[in-house]
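Show me any protein, keeping tokens residue-aligned.
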Amino acid sequence: MARLADYFVLVAFGPGPRAGSGEGHGQILQRFPEKDWEDNPFPQGIELFCQPSGWQLCPERNPPTFFIAVLTDINSERHYCACLTFWEPVEPSQAPACTGEEEEEAGERPSPSALVPPSQLFAPKTLVLVSRLDHAEVFRNSLGLIYTIHVEGLSVALENVIGNLLTCTIPIAGGSQPDSVEEGARTISLGAGDRQVIQTPLTDSLPVSCCSVALLFRQLGITNVLALFCAALTEHKILFLSRSYQRLTDACRGLLALLFPLRYSFTYVPILPAQLLEVLSTPTPFIIGVNSLFQAETQELLDVIIADLDGGTVTVPECVHIPPLPEPLHSQTHSALCMVLDPELELADLAFPPPTTSSSSLKMQDKELRAVFLRLFAQLFQGYRWCLHIVRIHPEPVIRFHKAAFLGQRGLVEDDFLLKVLEGMAFAGFVSERGVPYRPTDLFDELVANEVKRMRADENQPHRVLRHVRELAEQLYKNENPYPAVAMHKVQRPGEGSHLRRAPRPFPRLDESTVQWIIDQATAKLQGAPPAVRVEKKATVPSGPPMAAIVERNGVVHANSARRLEVVRNCISYVFEGKMLEAKKLLPAVLRALKGRAARRCLTRELHLHVQQNRAVLDHQQFDFVVRMMNCCLQDCTAMDEHGIAAALLPLVTAFCRKLSPGVTQFAYSCVQEHVVWSTPQFWEAMFYGDVQTHIRALYLEPASEEDGPTAKGEVGPAEGGTPGEEAEEEEEERSALDVASEQRRLWPTLGRDTQQELVQKEESTVFSQAIHYANRMSYLLLPLDSSKSRLLRERAGLGDLESMSNSAVTNSMAGSVAESYDTESGFEDAETSDVAGAVVRFINRFVDKVCTESGVTSEHLKGLHVMVPDIVQMHIETLEAVHRESKRLPPIQKPKLLRPSLLPGEECVLDGLRVYLLPDGREEGSGGSVGGPALLPAEGAVFLTTYRVIFTGMPTDPLVGEQVVVRSFPVASLTKEKRISVQAHMDQFLQDGLQLRSCTFQLLKMAFDEEVGSESAEVFRKHLHKLRYPPDVKGTFAFTAGSIHTAGRQPRTAKEKSPSLRTLSRNLVKNAKKTIGRQYVTRKKYNPPSWEQRGQPVPPEDQEDEISVSEELEPSTLTPALALKPSDRLTMNSLVERACCRDYQRLGLGTLSSSLSRAKSEPFRVTPVNRMYAICRSYPGLLIVPQSIQDNTLQRISRCYRQNRFPVVCWRSGRSKAVLLRSGGLHGKGVVGLFKAQNAPSPGQSQADSSSLEQEKYLQAVVSAMPRHADAASGRNTLSGFSSVHMASHGKWGSIRAGGRSGASNLGVDVGSRLAGKDLLGPPQPNGAPSEPGFLRPQRAALYIIGDKAQLKGVRPDPLQQWELVPIEVFEVRQVKASFKKLLKACVPGCPAGEQSPTSYLRLLEESEWLSQIHKLLQVSVLVVELLDSGSSVLVSLEDGWDITTQVVSLVQLLSDPYYRTLEGFRLLVEKEWLSFGHRFTHRGAHTLAGQSSGFAPIFLQFLDCVHQVHSQFPMEFEFSQFYLKFLSYHHVSHRFRTFLLDSDYERIELGLLYEEKGERKSQQACKSVWEYVDRLSKKTPVFYNYMYAPEDSEVLRPYSNVSNLKVWDFYTRETLAEGPPYDWELAQGPPEPLEEERPDGGAPQSRRRVIWPCYDSRLRAQPDAISRLLEELQRLETELGRPSERWKETWERVKAAQRSEARQDGRSTPSSLLMSSVSHHRRSLGVYLQEGPVGSTLSLSLDSDQSSSSTPSSGRQAARRSTSTLYSQFQTAESENRSYEGTLYKKGAFMKPWKARWFVLDKTKHQLRYYDHRVDTECKGIIDLAEVESVTAGTPTMGAPKTVDEKAFFDVKTTRRVYNFCAQDVHLAQQWVDRLQSCLSDA
């Protein structure tokens, strides 16, 4: 029995410190009993809770209020304080406390008329009942009765009522059904004629909620209550607000009732008094109720969820995340709640709704809502008992919950909600309270054990769900109201409005002694009576179905694929049967299968079968296989190990081993340490408790073997390894550990003391022995095999925390670069190992402390363990040292032998092969991604470093790919970035650190060093690489060192013999230059010209930026006059004349040196040798073209206006318009800008002061005057608009798909120049990227346009009278090009695995790089300049320093304007002239030397070649060279194989003696030093650089489309050939496929020559050459077989073309200029579709070239006059010429009533027939006329529908035995030819 109430207290208002303010505090007037109960002390602070809003006087009498506050004491016991408050008048004369005498007058009733005086104040007074039971209604009735007695003046003594109330006892709740109604429902009376029935709940553990849950849902709604429910479970702070205190209490009670079966264990204050509001800022979670009056105080709370009960809102702050219930539970719960709360919802849409059903009462609805949540918990926690570990049974059960296994089996590892619930305090209480196997059970236990399957079945049937909810609700209701029949109350209440009447007197003071006497009497009576304690009915708690029986909802689709498990089983059986080859084949499939959980479990089960007596000794190969599979299993395990894989493998890693030498055994654990799971304390605890449970169970199951049970160290058998769910499966017949424990707990009270003591001791020693066992196990898996590696580990993520211990550098490198963590200075090995040992000891000790304390191990045993752990660790370290030593001696696993790469002549190996793995880098082709094909990468092999290249050779690691050799290489000089990477790829062996090398030839080597490669070797590799990449000067590059290593001593001598004047020339030249240049250079550069003997010594590096600073004036006396050439300079002049520039000047008719020296005035321009000593501009060539009228001595002054002294010089002249193209550096401030600004007011003083500007003005004027067109300036053709559009159209080629092309070109051609005067060059472009439509910006065309940088020409206003005009444009800087190139590299060769990129990321990165938009700008500017030149205006390109963008633009302009530069020879000349002679800084931009390392690689030349490639793609027939030629140059301009692209200017090349050495030294060296020489040699052997489609049109100007949409990404950036590496070193690339050609044995039947071509592996060009190359090769092969000397391909090709021409002439056709020729001038002559127009509508024909359109007849549009390439191949087939005796187009009249049609007819003498086809490339014959049947061939006449325009004599008829055929040729001549041919055939027959 229990007391109904513990204390009765009377609390009254006491005035506060500020008198008259109306505020005060509570005073306890009386409390009963006055002494505290022993079992329940009086709670403090009651007076605060009676008036939570504060004690205040009121101006009017309020009605009495009632609420229940809850106080929690220090032992977490809740005290319910029922408070009834009423108001009494305050009288000034009234004493604070009433005297006892007043009690007699209580019987008098006050008259109703005695109403309240108006100015009266009233003070509150509270009656409080304190109880540990929550019987709200009883408390309300009891206090109401006391108040009624007082206010109505009933004749009952209050002392008796209160005494009875305090002595009333009621039955304890709980137990089974009460034996009688009296026991379960107690009727009490307080002695005032009242009667109350108290019903105690049947089960104490089920909360009592009355209607509170239903009210909570009514106030807040479903979603809000669910949010609060989740917030409470996940330990958030919850605050309720309401104006009603009772509602706050109810809401809090309701929320707690929903949490059942979990108990809320944090702060719980349903009504918080105002004085305690600071409690809200506590850091711990809480559920608190506060009156809405204090809402303002809650505004600052940032992490509190506020539920406003009156407003029905729940406010969640931004910083708080409430994890939602996992799906589908959330939606199921939501719909069930809807059905309970709103049953009408289901019927709302029915056409004929049933009559409304009566909804449940509020109390019943309350229980239904709770039933929904009870079901929810049953579903959440289903199967939880299978994850309980029983650690101790006696003296008290100790139970732990295996959280990871529970989450893993439920498939909810990622679920935030469940994770937080399981980690919360409430769940910990749940486990300790409900985990006990033998205890009273309640509704929840039965539900979770027996109803889960039913709930699963009901999921999708709402009516069945509702039925189940109602059943549960019935039980909950019955629990609260076991006897609804007897619930009759009879309690007096005060009359209506009694509180308004004047009370006869204040509440009386009660007599303490009377109350105390009543209490004492009752206590004495109770002591005499026997204790009425009911024995609780305990039972074994049902466990329910095991988790495995519950189907996994979230399992992966193919997780249980039987085929995969079969593969795993087969592989393991092969391994143990020793069939290693079979196992190796299956291994990749197994490793893939092991991604699935089922396969991992299968692996652990299969491996267990091969362990006998806890040991399995394997041979080395088996051991490697097993370890590899284990690692693969573990790599996907999280730290939690939720699927129990690591748990199952733990006994195996200590079982599988191999013998290294006598007495030394290596166990598998030493090879699987680098997984995060081993360093997770929670994993070890779960494993420990699982094993302890197994052993404790065994202890009680097998009493016979008790002795060895607890003490055995015992390795663990297979059963314990599985997860608890699996154990259940395996041991269904046997009893589970919980069943055993339950049985033991039942027997425990019956055992004698000694037996009990013995059992406790046995259990304790079992736990202790397991703790020792686990200390050993943990040391196995935490101590690394190689103690030297512990150095690396020590500095890693605090080894003290042991976040991750490992013996493999795979994880090391993750924490950062391994090299950084080398502790080079300390050599104290032992100290370091003990450091690791210390960390491991600390980790194990922490573990041991925790588990032993929880499992109740005695303190002596615990101390013993602490002593033991360091010894265990030390012992294990010693064992490991021996194992490590022996494992190093093992014969290494058979690794593939290293394949040595083939080297170029002169290339030498610097570092021999380091064994590495080449990893996939994001280019899908190599790794067999979406493109298909085999996974060539990762490949295993070696990396070699030579003087020229970095080379990887190896084979794919995937054995299924086959024995393909994988080669990837790039020149050392092209390396742009090298970074260390961390590698997490699991190969055969574990890898250490990795290296990623990126090159500007678009190659990436992402390598991981094999473990045999020490980090020292890797470091040596990096240093050597760096040294080779950045030699101290240019002479250290491969182009110089190749081959010279052997002939270093002899070389200068041969040079001397061959060319005695060579070195003197170089010396003289440089000496003179030094002298001539004067002061400024000597101060800058103080070194002598290095001669060949000094080749090894470093040359001081070039200054980073320009050498000549403008401020330094030159002394005029140092300049040599142009004509006064000394004899020593003659040699210089001769050499200069032979340079490329000069040859080109002569070709362009810009003058020769001789004419310049004799100053022939007729020439507008002349060659000046003023710079032959490189005195004026060091980066210009020695000979320059300037206007005839300019004196040499003025050039010095002019040059000062330009950056780097690069003054304007002519570099090209248009043969037609005679306009010239000039180039210069950008202007300095006092250049053209100053000139324009000072124009309007020239004064004599100014011109003297700024003489160089005037000189410059004269210079520009001279350029203008030198132009022939300048004379016409006054005539009518001076405007560009007046320029004839026909003229434009006839000489240009706009890329346009329009049929005629003329209109398009003419529009674009008009007024090209000055519409651009700056602003709109890059303005609104045309759709095809051509410059925008012209606008009349100025009436007159300038003779000279100066294209300059916008920034540089700011504020310049061109004067209309001026003859030149500025075109300011925006150009990108070199740094932008660098940045763009870096992004382009990343886009084309990503570096990260393909999986990490989305399919669109390549295109996105490409766009972000802006590379194509830079190409677009270059092409756009170039096309603009081409237009200006073509229209007759000269152009000066004056951008940046004149050596980057200027060079790009000028070169492109010449390429587009002059067909000569589109030949092989011309392109070479263009590059030599514009790039080499005019000083593009190759060495500086390519960062060739150490000095340039910081500036990085700038791909200016590459960008130019890309532009050429774009033009080539659009005009494939205009270029003599192929695309391969451009790629070849792109590769070799950075490779340093040739000397051509080294150094920054001709001056530097002379200084090194490079410029003129070729003549002298060429024959002495085998290797080509010049790329051009190499190209020449190679072109003789192979047509690889030749473009067969080359068919140029004379004087063709190209105008390519430049819009980004018209540009293509160059395949140079994306394509690679893994079979042989880059194909640009021809000698290397040609190696392997030769044998394929010879495979066919002579004379035998020809074998199939077919082979599979893999993208990215084979070179497609070589595997599948184009037809012409193939035929040329075949021809050469046949000639060789016949023993003839094979002629060169070029000669064969020329012969074929000649034969083609002569045949065309015989056939009477006009001679085409080439084999593939088209003169339709405005077609874009790329392969594609074009329209042909004819009389019968236009037909679309796909062809390589269009017909001759010279004929004037309309029908010629349809005439397919020449053969296409398909018949071209017939040149190489011997018999073909007889088969096609004659062919051509004829119109043929169809049969009766059919029209005339043009057909292609072939006369075949051999087969004696006339065949006809639809068109000439048609291979399918449409009809045959057998000549044997022909009777006659006669002249015909035109019939209806015949072609109108054809001469009548062109018709003829052929009469056969069957019918007459009518034919019509295109003209009379052709008709005659056909008739003659047919006649001759007939006569021959």
Q: What stands out?
A: DSSP finds 66 helices and 47 strands in the chain. The mean pLDDT is 76. The CA atoms of residues 692 and 767 lie 6 Å apart. The two ends are 135 Å apart (CA to CA).
